[in-house]
Predict the structure of Alpha/beta hydrolase.
Amino acid sequence: MKTRVVRVRDWTRPVPAVFREVRAATPEAPEGKPPLLFVPGFGHGAWAFAEHWLEHAASRAFPAHAVSLRGHGGSGPAPKATLRAYAHDVVQVATGLDRRAVLVGHGAGALVVAHALARYPARAGVLVAPVFGGWGTLGTALGRNPAGTLPAVFGGRLRLHHRQLFSRELPDAAAREYAARLGRASARAQWQLLRQRPVEPAVGDPPMLVVGSPDDRVVPPSALTRAAGRYGVAPLLFPGMGHDMMLDARWREPVDAILDWLDKDLAG
């Protein structure tokens, strides 16, 4: 039975309703595997997973879904959205699925998933190249891309260079095209990311997997290790890949590792 944890604040200060874009891929021959809900990071929409990972997961018998957080992709505008509102989007979509879902968050979407896990009893949680925020994250971003990062500190748009996001194995034209599709998170959510509000424990202690690359130019190895350490696991690493693993040239490797882990862990 699916349930969700409701806090008093959820009743006294409800999150405004908004249209949510959800893309999906359905297996041709369902095998009873749990649905996957992919949550993109700031600036990305459901399209980032629809490019490769949704159909690939469905080809391995996993019903696959991706949500665009409010203000992203094809979801409704939300210029004052908070991390709480983003987590609300994830919980609402997850509870609407026919079975308990596996939540898969990328980048800052991994932090959104971490907050959602405190309210939704997921079958499992997967954090891909997780951005958990804090001033250290800002320092790293400023060091690597000061012109694109500094405006975000003052409420502007975070502009990531395409070579911060992708390895050089991905052709330059494709990397530029993907980077050009990026939108922006709300200024309020960006500020909350920097403040690094503590994450509540996950409901039901779901199995967790953390995936990343030691060559990620957004998430340094130390931050990846800390994020994994929150859940008592070691990160599964894919050297040579960029931050946007689901769009990079070797996109099959991390998603197959995730699906292999789910097949093994959830079968036990």
